[in-house]
């Protein structure tokens, strides 16, 4: 298989227009809130990486470095009652939907205060009480479940939307195919957000699909697909917002392919030497947070004063969250057999 | 009391719960317009409409996953596997997504998987399997396997009302096996409780499903030879009714375990170990297991008869055990 079969970033006719001219539609506080959550994900994960290398986070550690525009742009399109089925690079989305930074760190540290109370680790969390499906390690397993959550909304006549994230590797699974197909057949209110970061662990795109572009798969399910620059938070947001409206109107699912590059390893144990240096440099120069900051400054939305206050707030949220998590107890070993079954 | 087949009892239990609770719905392949491969849901589409009787794509992962998603949202889905064998295509959804859900979240997951299982239906290796042990081995799942029409209705009702994922193993050979008395109206058979079907003093026979009926027939033959076998219908395989098993074995001092699933790694091994650990002092003979051979389920009638425990083999084992 020729390695150069596919350019690093696949061009598509359906590439959405630059979001520049449309950005003015979003009020400044919404734009700044999106930047805040992008920065918060980066800051929490940055601290997480340090904790991991200090040996304080047991097991594996995953980040969504470079994914922040996708995560925040898409999750910001949801209404309060909507539902989320995230994966392991979507930290900001968990927080935007109500999981606190303290709970996130408690989860990383395996403490009782984490959403899984030490029963599961790292980003394998969620909270159905807050409309977040807990993610499991099996890629795309959440997709059919997201369809079922949307089915329940449809059955009860609730105008709620389920947004689910997954990666390029996940699209190779049967679960992804079955879940997308199920959602399409019943025209369920599902938004399918593909975070195409070009590598599934070490496996490149040409080992995942022979299709020219993932977004082309949408046609096979009879649903619309749109490809966007995954490092442009407003482009992602615009596509997600349109898909959410479409889903809420009963028109069924939309596939949104967001293109980026995973600029760190699959996990922190992975030194990602298989990613060409030039490719890394190209995408590192397109950091989604830096790009958004520059645009917000150019538009006069991000003043030096606001910038400084936001950075202070992010740093404070990280410190407060970590302190909260560190104060959270270890789970009691005597409870190991508890909770296997729900009681009546 | 109505005279119903096992199949009719399942239908009655399912319909009663759907009438009682608007959250209950059924989803599966060919269950709506066609009424199901075995006609369990015949007439349901007309009564409950297409959002509660959902003809689904041929996709077990999607169908079980969708059931899980709906249960997450507080619905009470009953997902039909057309044949239990096809659940292998949904294995991750069952054992990873559903089984571990409450343990991770402390939230209920009221999902029922209807699992038409078992042999003696000329089904061969992909339409006859007994895979209940896979699921009994998975923490977080409940596994039930009724042998009688009364329990088929009552356990289905209990499964639907249970806040956990329940694998409901319904034996295809028993569907139209015979008519039995089934109580009218609403009742639930408690999950986790075995039932003493025949009292005896010489030995305890522990079984479930289709084999339970063979055991009863064999117990009748043994009784003619003066051997009073006690027959325990497990009804639930996870969580096991340990007390009922141990009480019976402590009384008789002997245990014969019979199941249709293949021997190695079957539920019988777990029961034998339980008896060895907890009732060793009461034993007057070896714990004997009779199970199907460790082969795939054969299609040919003669081969399948050789594969499964027979009434004669069960009666013979009763004699051997009684002789200790």
Name some characteristics of this structure:
heterodimer; A: 344 residues; alpha/beta; two-stranded antiparallel sheet; 40% helix; disordered N terminus; B: 324 residues; seven-stranded mixed sheet; 20% strand
Question: What would your notes on this structure say?
Answer:
- The complex is a heterodimer of chains A (344) and B (324).
- Chain A has 344 residues and is an alpha/beta fold.
- Chain A is 40% helix and 9% strand.
- Chain A has helices spanning 28-53, 68-75, 91-96, 101-108, 142-156, 174-185, 217-220, 233-248, 277-284, 288-298, 304-327, and strands at residues 83-85, 162-167, 190-196, 199-200, 203-204, 225-229, 254-259.
- In chain A, strands 1-2-3-7-6 form a five-stranded parallel β-sheet, sandwiched between helices. A two-stranded antiparallel ribbon of chain A has the order 4-5.
- In chain A, strand 4 (199-200) and strand 5 (203-204) form a beta hairpin.
- Chain A starts with 27 loop residues before the first helix and ends in a 17-residue tail after the last helix.
- With 324 residues, chain B is an alpha/beta fold.
- In chain B, the strands form three sheets. In chain B, strands 3-2-4-5-7-6-12 form a seven-stranded mixed β-sheet, with helices on both faces. Chain B has a five-stranded mixed β-sheet with strand order 9-11-10-13-14, with helices on both faces. A two-stranded antiparallel sheet of chain B has the order 1-8.
- In chain B, helix 8 crosses helix 12 (311-322) and helix 9 (242-252) crosses helix 10.
- Chain B starts with a strand and ends with a helix.
- The model of chain B has no long low-confidence stretch (mean pLDDT 97).
- The chains are: A alpha/beta (344), B alpha/beta (324).
- The A-B interface holds A 115-116, 119-120, 124-129, 133-134, 136-138, 141, 143-155, 174-175, 178-179, 181-182, 185-186, 339-344 and B 25, 51-52, 54, 56-57, 59, 61-75, 77, 89, 92-93, 96-97, 100-109, 139-140, 142, 162-164, 239.
């Amino acid at each position: 298989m020729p390695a150069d079969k596919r350019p690093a970033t696949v061009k598509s006719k359906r590439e959405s227009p630059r979001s520049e001219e449309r950005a003015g539609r979003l009020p400044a506080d919404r734009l700044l809130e999106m930047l805040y959550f992008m920065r918060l994900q980066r800051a929490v994960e940055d601290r997480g990486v340090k904790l991991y290398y200090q040996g304080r986070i047991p097991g594996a550690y995953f980040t969504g470095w470079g994914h922040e525009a996708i995560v925040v742009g898409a999750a910001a399109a949801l209404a309060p009652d909507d539902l989320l089925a995230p994966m392991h690079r979507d930290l900001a989305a968990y927080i935007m939907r109500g999981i606190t930074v303290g709970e996130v760190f408690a989860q990383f540290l395996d403490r009782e205060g984490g959403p899984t109370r030490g029963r599961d680790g790292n980003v394998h969390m969620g909270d159905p009480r807050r409309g977040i499906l807990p993610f499991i390690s099996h890629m795309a397993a959440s997709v059919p479940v997201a369809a079922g959550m949307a089915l329940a909304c449809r059955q009860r006549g609730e105008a709620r939307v389920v947004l689910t994230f997954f990666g390029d590797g996940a699209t190779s699974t049967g679960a992804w195919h079955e879940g997308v197909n199920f959602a399409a057949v019943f025209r369920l209110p599902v938004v399918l957000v593909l975070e195409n970061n070009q590598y599934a662990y070490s496996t490149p795109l040409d080992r995942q699909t022979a299709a020219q572009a993932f977004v082309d798969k949408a046609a096979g399910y009879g649903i619309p697909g749109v490809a966007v620059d995954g490092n442009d938070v407003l482009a992602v947001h615009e596509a997600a917002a349109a898909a959410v409206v479409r889903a809420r109107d009963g028109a069924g699912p939309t596939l949104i392919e967001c293109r980026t590059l995973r600029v760190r390893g699959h996990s922190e144990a992975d030194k990602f030497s298989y990613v060409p240096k030039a490719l890394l440099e190209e995408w590192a120069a397109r950091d989604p947070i830096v790009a958004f900051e520059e645009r917000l400054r150019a538009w006069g939305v991000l003043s030096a004063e606001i910038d400084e206050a936001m950075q202070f707030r992010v740093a404070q949220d990280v410190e407060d969250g970590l302190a909260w998590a560190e104060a959270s107890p270890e789970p009691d070993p005597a409870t190991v057999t508890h909770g296997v079954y729900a009681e009546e | 009391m109505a005279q119903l087949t096992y199949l009719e009892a399942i239908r009655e239990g399912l319909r009663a719960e759907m009438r009682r609770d608007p959250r209950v719905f059924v989803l599966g392949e060919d269950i709506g317009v066609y009424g199901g491969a075995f006609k369990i849901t015949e007439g349901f589409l007309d009564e409950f409409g297409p959002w509660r009787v959902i003809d689904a794509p041929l996709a077990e992962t999607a169908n079980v996953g969708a059931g899980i998603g709906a249960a997450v949202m507080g619905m009470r889905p009953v997902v039909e596997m057309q044949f239990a064998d096809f659940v292998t295509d949904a294995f991750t959804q069952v054992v990873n997504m559903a089984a571990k859900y409450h343990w991770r979240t402390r939230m209920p997951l009221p999902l029922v998987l209807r699992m038409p299982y078992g042999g003696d239906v000329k089904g061969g290796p992909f339409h006859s399997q007994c895979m209940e042990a896979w699921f009994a081995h998975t923490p977080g799942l409940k596994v039930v396997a009724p042998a009688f029409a009364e329990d088929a209705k009552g356990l289905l009702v209990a499964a639907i009302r249970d806040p956990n994922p329940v694998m409901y193993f319904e034996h295809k050979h028993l569907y139209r096996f015979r008519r039995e008395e089934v109580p009218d109206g609403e009742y639930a058979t408690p999950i986790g409780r075995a039932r003493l079907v025949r009292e005896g003093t010489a030995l305890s026979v522990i079984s479930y499903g289709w084999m339970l009926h063979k055991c009863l027939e064999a117990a009748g033959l043994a009784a003619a030879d003066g051997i009073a076998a006690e027959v325990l219908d497990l009804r639930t395989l996870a969580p096991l009714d340990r007390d009922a098993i141990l009480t019976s074995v402590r009384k008789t001092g002997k245990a014969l375990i019979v199941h249709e699933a293949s021997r190695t790694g079957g539920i019988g091994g777990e029961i034998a170990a339980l008896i060895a650990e907890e009732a060793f002092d009461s034993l007057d003979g070896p714990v004997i297991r009779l199970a199907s051979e460790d082969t795939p389920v054969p299609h040919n009638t003669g081969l399948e008869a050789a594969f499964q425990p027979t009434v004669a083999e069960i009666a013979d084992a009763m004699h051997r055990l009684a002789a200790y």
